Amino acid sequence: MSDVVIRLRCAKRRGLNTSYIIWLFSFLQRLFSYLGNKEIHSARLERNEREERARGKSLECERCAAPSSIIVGSHVWVEDPDEAWLDGEVTEVKGDDIKINTTSGKTIVAKSANVYPKDPEFPSCGVDDMTKLAYLHEPGVLQNLRCRYDINEIYTYTGNILIAVNPFRRLPHLYSNHMMEQYKGAAFGELSPHPFAVADAAYRNMINEKISQAILVSGESGAGKTESTKSLMRYLAYMGGKASKTEERSVEQKVLESNPVLEAFGNAKTVRNNNSSRFGKFVEIQFDKKGQISGAAIRTYLLERSRVCQVSDPERNYHCFYMLCAAPAEDIEKYKLGNPRTFHYLKQSNCYDLDGVDEYKEYLATKRAMDVVGISQEEQDAIFRVVAAILHLGNVEFVKGKEIDSSQPKDDKSRFHLKTAAELFKCNLKALEDSLVKRVMVTRDESITKSLDPDTAALSRDALAKIVYSKLFDWLVDKINVSIGQDTASELLIGVLDIYGFESFKTNRNSNISRPNLLKIPY
Ligand SMILES: Nc1ncnc2c1ncn2[C@@H]1O[C@H](COP(=O)(O)OP(=O)(O)OP(=O)(O)O)[C@@H](O)[C@H]1O
Ligand SMILES: [Mg+2]
């Protein structure tokens, strides 16, 4: 279990810079994971104490207690290389060796340290809060998550943490307006575990205690962080939204509509997730004294730049490149595009299409979302010109030039792409070429121009593509922020962090219900 979504009281309102956010949240993640474990552990100890007392046994933590309390006839869990954990009954105890007949029919002899007690009275539907488990160890937690997952209960609390298991299919009934109504004002823990409950608790705490709040959503890639974040945002928009009296879109509509725009430019297909966010996002929703949304700000960080020019099979580059290649004919002509298979930055992988995704429709939908968040037609044209220029830039190849260690565009095809890139960037062709095949070193007295060999020129080309793309992304975020508008007078906000980077589990055994995603709320 490595994924945590934490809500914390955010005393500091503004001025969180990127490195501060990263440091803060990595620190908080460790802190809350420690506190969470401690809290759960104490809850467990308390419960065990009661149970052990009743049974006349001494108090011990369940992991420590396991070996000594295991006797012939005990129900236990034992590790299995294929199935992760198997349950069974102890048939023989010889010193440190325990023989178990598993329910799958296997007989296993294991060391006592690898055998964990199983609750024979575990309810068949599991429990909605892990602290209610008789034993809080890995097999117990996984068994509970699996039982609940099998009956479409994808959310489970662990004390004040919410764990979300990715259902990998739409469950619309869980996110309807009716559901939001149910969670409005309900005490935390009264209804089934749900991100709406987390968002509602954050909102109420903010209103009642007049303290800003933050929700941290964390989990490995594909866990469902972005989907959970969207549910949280929808609920906050529902609670704090006010219908706009004019034609103008409301702040909350703009915040919600910014998702498809950011996803088009910041998400890509990876081996783990067809719509993987390749950037971190912190959305700050500001509220007025009445608890209505008065402004918002989106901060993004750590966009994965290398993907722009390096894609490994079977992943893809950023979605926007493919949707632009599928744009209506007049746009294709305008940007001199064509089949994605003809562009170096896209053809390094054999994956071009996504199941169930029509890139043409995605292009139109992205443009519509851009309209909503206030990006004008002219600006949209400029954005896609830059995207197309990057694709053309990637097709410029270099060969040795006339001078030693110099380079020049390889052939007419490369010259065509260089010229097109310059046209689309609206920059001088010679200046663009020089920036790729030459390096200018400025010393105190003079500036020295050095020619670059073909390999280094190709590296310059890629460096330019990456920096331009990342600047474009930052520009988009700034543009969205200006359009949404911040409420500088607001003193209360709820921040939601959709973090990424916690992608490696040393052990992630249960592939069927893997990728848990936790939410934690400190009291
Ligand atoms: N609650 C949910 N209901 C339905 N489908 C979901 C849910 N959560 C996740 N999914 C599915 O799983 C996919 C991956 O989820 P999501 O993009 O939220 O993962 P992530 O944790 O943000 O991953 P990454 O770190 O790669 O961005 C979604 O595109 C969606 O198909
Ligand atoms: Mg994501």
Overview of this protein structure:
The protein has 523 residues and is α+β, with helices and mostly antiparallel strands. It has 15 helices and 19 strands. The protein has two domains: 7-45 and 141-307 and 485-520, Kinesin (3-Layer(aba) Sandwich); 316-484, Myosin VI head, motor domain, U50 subdomain (Four Helix Bundle (Hemerythrin (Met), subunit A)). 41% of the residues lie in helices and 19% in strands. Strands 1-9-18-12-13 form a five-stranded mixed sheet. β3 (84-94) and β4 form a beta hairpin. It starts with 6 loop residues before the first strand and ends with a strand. The model is unreliable at 1-28, 53-66 and 507-523 (pLDDT under 50). The structure holds adenosine-5'-triphosphate (ATP) and magnesium ion. Adenosine-5'-triphosphate (ATP) binds next to α6 and β11. It comes from Hibiscus syriacus.
Task: Write a brief caption for the model.
The chain has 523 residues and is α+β, with helices and mostly antiparallel strands. It has two domains: 7-45 and 141-307 and 485-520, Kinesin motor domain (Kinesin); 316-484, Myosin VI head, motor domain, U50 subdomain (Four Helix Bundle (Hemerythrin (Met), subunit A)), CATH 1.20.120.720. It has 15 helices and 19 strands.
